[in-house]
């Protein structure tokens, strides 16, 4: 069946419309004008809107596919892989122990061998998330269709389960205290047990959720009771479940949340009302823990608390004994029982002892380079959600790295915050790698499309 002018009915015209649009995109200037004029003449006024919609879709598709080899994205990937490689080498070096013999049948019991396993796995996770369109994590399709909402709810549930073990020990085999703290889930996988830290998942879930919510609200984030306050309640709930057992992570999440809200455009005077409640909560957390009070007093009066300052002092000894170029890879001695937590929170001190100031400076420069590249991604990103998400990822890694280095150099009181990508820990490395994968995906989509219509 054809019409009087020889065209097919409206239900069969999709291939013809696509052909005409292809002529408009692919031909020379005269061919594009001729094809566009003929197409509009044949299909009438309504086709103008159709062409505009299709042109917008083509622009978006070209923007996604034409920027896969983005220099910023490649540089970010190289910086992070280098940091993970450095961390794997020094975790293996710091885990050396003359008190036991290496048994490969129990490889998962050794931090150094575990890190060798996590390194390629983290690279694979980073690559996977770099190929997933970050816009799928937003709230444009609704709250119920966003995966990040369910990840946040899952993290809150896991935090509640772990914290409940402190008061109602119902799952002693799955939740065992480490250093008298309930922070980890022990997941049995055959002959091994994998430790999972829900607070790490909650930290990234809050960052992603705030970016998505602030992007969805837009300028409405300035409304205190209907937009700003509910987001603060979500952050307060997550921080409240963490602060009892992990003061440092709770403080980090709170600071990051307020910074993201300020970046998103919240009024500065809206930040003031929640601050007294946050201050009271953190004061109560410090006052209720004798160890936290001792650490704070030992930092303020180091001569009066030599036992509490043992770890910071050993950290300074490791950094100072390394000198300019260090003692050499694997030749440090502070790792042999002198410096506690040498593979996790104080891995930066081991790097300083074995590679000296040069090694420490190289690690710091890698983080500075990452922050600079992240800022470029934020500045070039074209949508609000991508800007907020990229900014949140960069802020999280930068602030966490700065705090860890400050603790190791005794600029701030001792707190259990790992050095991203360098410290031992599968949960932190894998989740941080996934976040950087999302950042790389944002970087891939930050250039102008090749074809302008």
Which terms summarize this structure?
64% helix; two-stranded antiparallel sheet; mainly alpha; disordered C terminus; single chain; disordered N terminus; 453 residues
Structure in words:
The protein is globular. Mean pLDDT is 82; it is low at 1-27, 39-43, 55-67 and 448-453. A two-stranded antiparallel ribbon has the order 1-2. The chain folds into 2 domains: 10-62, no CATH class; 70-145 and 199-444, no CATH class. The chain starts with 13 loop residues before the first helix and ends in a 9-residue tail after the last helix. A hairpin with a 2-residue loop joins strand 1 (185-189) and strand 2 (192-196). It has 16 helices and 2 strands. The chain has helices at 14-26, 29-43, 46-65, 71-94, 111-130, 147-167, 198-217, 224-243, 247-264, 268-271, 274-287, 290-300, 310-322, 347-380, 384-408, 426-444, and strands at residues 185-189, 192-196. Helix content is 64%, strand content 2%. Helix 4 (71-94) packs antiparallel against helix 16 (426-444) and helix 6 (147-167) runs antiparallel to helix 7. The chain is mainly α and 453 residues long.
The termini sit apart by 34 Å
What share of residues is helical?
55-70%
Order of helices and strands: HHHHHHEEHHHHHHHHHH
How are the strands ordered across the major sheet?
Answer: 1-2
Itemize the secondary structure elements and their pairings:
Blueprint: H1 14-26, H2 29-43, H3 46-65, H4 71-94, H5 111-130, H6 147-167, E1 185-189, E2 192-196, H7 198-217, H8 224-243, H9 247-264, H10 268-271, H11 274-287, H12 290-300, H13 310-322, H14 347-380, H15 384-408, H16 426-444
Antiparallel strand pairs: 1-2
Helix pairs in contact: 1-2, 4-5, 4-14, 4-16, 5-16, 6-7, 6-8, 7-8, 7-9, 7-15, 8-9, 8-11, 9-15, 13-14, 14-15, 15-16
